[in-house]
Design goal:
Length: about 375
């Protein structure tokens, strides 16, 4: 690949509905879209999934932009790249900043797949041509949550995730189970609990959840191993798994039964695949987490979710879950609870230039 030019665009769009977690409420979504052009005019798309403020991780849109502009893009442009797997090694001397690294690495994966005339999901040895779709309920108001769930079930979603925190957990889940006794239901705590809350968490075993996601601290692996011995509900780790070594440690300490793999959180598609393969080896279930993405990241998530281990529906919803109109074409649609893996080369989606222009607040080119 002879990369000629890289374009960064900061975009911002309002969500259709507020999205609330134990850490705060999101009304508008800001992000960075990366376009990598080769000398023949082919383009690969990537997305930085960091938020405007550091509530999920320490990275933000502005810190990622700095990392890309001043450090990562110059490393990419300094000499040709033969394969996307080389990107990680170029960044090895730069610590952290996984979301910035993943944004440009995934754009290069898309470009490479297009130059190879293959869909990205086939290039990474995906085994299924459709993926199961799950959805996140972005409210902790009981009536609103039940109304949203009923609507999503009518749309065909196979799995529902709700956000919980102390004081908004047992009663919320009880009412959801009362109205929807048979749905595949999981709860995401976003690190809202401590080991002092063990009895509170044990009470949630009543609801036969698929899993409880990241109940304890964002950087914890050890205490989750203690909690796991007390719960019948499977524990899923999310924020704790930032590196391959984190996943190895969690498996070694028996801290979880499930790992949520997010391409942005772990630093790129190569790392996501490595963690997937490790979990396959040790019989740890995996699923693909979401970050209230725009369509570019959603397309990369679809490709990753075609890998063999992704048997649990991920946070991969339709474009209209969050947006009146997404930045990609065609829009991502749900059909009978699944999303078709696209047949086009690369991520299989094109940029909706009109919508992209409407959403762009700043752009810059690097050659």
């Amino acid at each position: 690949m002879k990369i000629k030019e890289i374009k960064l665009s900061i975009i911002k769009m309002p969500l259709k509905l507020p999205f609330s977690t134990s850490l705060g409420t999101v009304l508008d979504r800001e992000g960075i879209i990366i376009e990598v052009f080769d000398t023949d005019g082919a383009v690969g798309y990537g997305e930085v999934v960091a938020f405007s403020t550091p509530w999920y991780t320490e990275e933000t849109v502005q810190t990622c932009y700095h990392m890309l502009k001043d450090l990562l893009i110059p490393l990419i442009l300094e000499e040709p790249i033969t394969h996307p797997n080389e990107v990680q090694s170029r960044f090895n001397h730069i610590r952290g900043n996984n979301m910035a690294k993943a944004g440009i690495e995934t754009a290069i994966w898309d470009l490479y797949a297009k130059l190879q005339h293959q869909p990205l999901w086939k290039l990474i040895n995906g085994v299924r041509n459709e993926v199961l779709a799950g959805v996140v309920v972005g409210t902790q108001d009981i009536k609103e949550a039940i109304a949203q769930i009923n609507s999503y079930l009518m749309d065909g979603y196979k799995r529902v995730k709700v956000k919980i925190k102390p004081g908004s957990d047992y009663l919320l889940l009880k009412e959801i189970r009362k109205h929807c006794p048979d749905i595949a239901l999981m709860a995401d705590a976003n690190s809202a609990y401590t080991l002092k809350d063990i009895e509170m968490l044990k009470a949630l075993d009543d609801f036969e959840l698929l899993m409880i996601e990241q109940p304890l601290a964002v950087d914890d692996i050890v205490e989750h191993s203690i909690l796991k011995k007390e719960l019948k509900t499977p524990i899923c780790l999310d924020e704790s798994i930032v590196t391959y070594h984190d996943a190895e440690s969690a498996i070694y300490l028996n801290s979880c039964q499930v790992i949520n793999i997010k391409i942005g959180r772990v630093g790129g598609l190569k790392n996501a695949i490595k963690i997937h393969d490790l979990c396959q080896k040790h019989n740890i279930q995996v699923w693909c987490g979401g970050m209230i993405e725009f369509g570019i990241s959603r397309a990369h998530n679809i490709a990753l979710s075609t890998k063999e281990g992704f048997t649990i529906p991920g946070d991969i919803s339709a474009s209209n879950r969050y947006w009146e109109e997404d930045i990609i074409t065609p829009q991502v649609d749900i059909i009978h609870g699944t999303i078709k893996a696209p047949s086009g080369f690369g991520i299989g989606y094109e940029m909706n230039d009109r919508r992209m222009n409407q959403a762009t607040t700043y752009k810059e080119y690097f050659r």
